[in-house]
Design a protein that fits this description.
This is Amino acid ABC transporter permease. By secondary structure, this protein is mainly alpha-helical. It contains 8 helices and no strands.
Length: about 240
C-alpha cells in the first residue's frame, strides 16, 4: 500500500499544481471581475443603465444559479461545438478542455459571487451615500472610496468560502478530460485496481489544500478586522 501511495502521490500533486490550482485561481479571478460588474449593474439606477442590460444580467445570474455545474460543463464543452450559426459560427464553438473549464467555472463563480458582492454593498448604510453626496462626492467616488472598501471586508469570508468550494468543484473537470487531480486518481485506479485507495488518497490531498486555504482565509479576515478597528480608533 505504501509503495502505491509513494508512486501515486507525486502524480496527483503534480496534477494539482499544474491544473487544479491554476484552473481554480484563473476562474475565480475572472469570475470575481464578472461578479463585480454584474453586481454594480444590477444595483445601478435604471435610468442610467438600459433595462435590457439589467434584465440580461439578472437572467445570467438566475441561469447559472439554477442549473448544475456539471451540466454547464457539458453544455460548454460538448454542446457548443453543435451551435452552428450560418455566417457566425458555421463549424460551432470548439474549445479545448482547459478553456472550456475556465469559461464554465468563471461564469458559475461570477453568478454566485455577484450576489455576495451585491449583498455586501447593500449592507453599507444608505446614510453614507447621502453624507458623501453632501460634501460634493460623485456616486463613482463614493463607491470607490467609501462603499467598496467596507463591502470588501464584509464579502471576504463568503468569497473565500466560494474559492475553497471552487477548488473542490474542479474535480468535475475530469468529466471533460482535464487531467486534474481527480482524473489522475481515476487513471491510476484503472491501472492498479485500487479505487478505494486512490480515491481516498486524492480526498486527503483535497482536504490538505482546503485546510491550507481555510487557514489563509482566517489570517486575511483577522488582518482586515484589525485594519478596520485601527481606522475606527483613529477616526475617533
Amino acid at each position: 500500500m505504501w509503495n502505491t501511495i509513494s508512486t501515486s502521490l507525486p502524480q496527483i500533486l503534480e496534477a494539482g499544481f499544474k491544473y487544479t490550482i491554476p484552473l481554480a485561481l484563473i476562474s475565480f479571478f475572472i469570475g470575481l471581475a464578472l461578479a463585480l460588474v454584474t453586481a454594480l449593474i444590477r444595483l445601478s439606477a435604471t435610468k442610467g443603465i438600459n433595462i435590457v442590460i439589467k434584465l440580461f444580467f439578472r437572467f445570467y445570474v438566475w441561469l447559472f444559479r439554477s442549473t448544475p455545474l456539471l451540466v454547464q460543463l457539458f453544455i460548454v464543452y460538448f454542446g457548443l461545438p453543435y451551435l452552428k450559426i450560418k455566417g457566425l459560427t458555421p463549424e460551432g464553438i470548439k474549445l479545448d478542455p482547459f478553456m472550456a473549464g475556465v469559461l464554465t467555472f468563471s461564469l458559475n463563480t461570477g453568478a454566485y459571487a455577484s450576489e455576495t458582492i451585491r449583498a455586501a454593498i447593500e449592507s453599507v448604510p444608505s446614510g453614507q451615500w447621502e453624507a458623501a453626496a453632501s460634501i460634493g462626492m460623485t456616486r463613482t467616488q463614493t463607491l470607490k472610496r467609501i462603499i467598496l472598501p467596507q463591502a470588501l471586508r464584509v464579502s471576504v469570508p463568503p468569497l473565500a468560502n466560494s474559492f475553497i468550494s471552487l477548488v473542490k468543484d474542479t474535480s468535475l473537470a475530469a468529466s471533460i478530460t482535464i487531467v486534474e487531480m481527480f482524473e489522475v486518481s481515476q487513471q491510476i485506479a484503472a491501472e492498479n485496481y485500487e479505487p478505494l485507495l486512490m480515491y481516498s488518497l486524492v480526498a486527503v490531498v483535497y482536504a490538505i489544500f482546503c485546510t491550507i486555504l481555510s487557514w489563509l482565509q482566517g489570517k486575511l479576515e483577522k488582518k482586515l478586522n484589525a485594519s478596520h478597528v485601527k481606522r475606527g480608533s483613529e477616526s475617533r
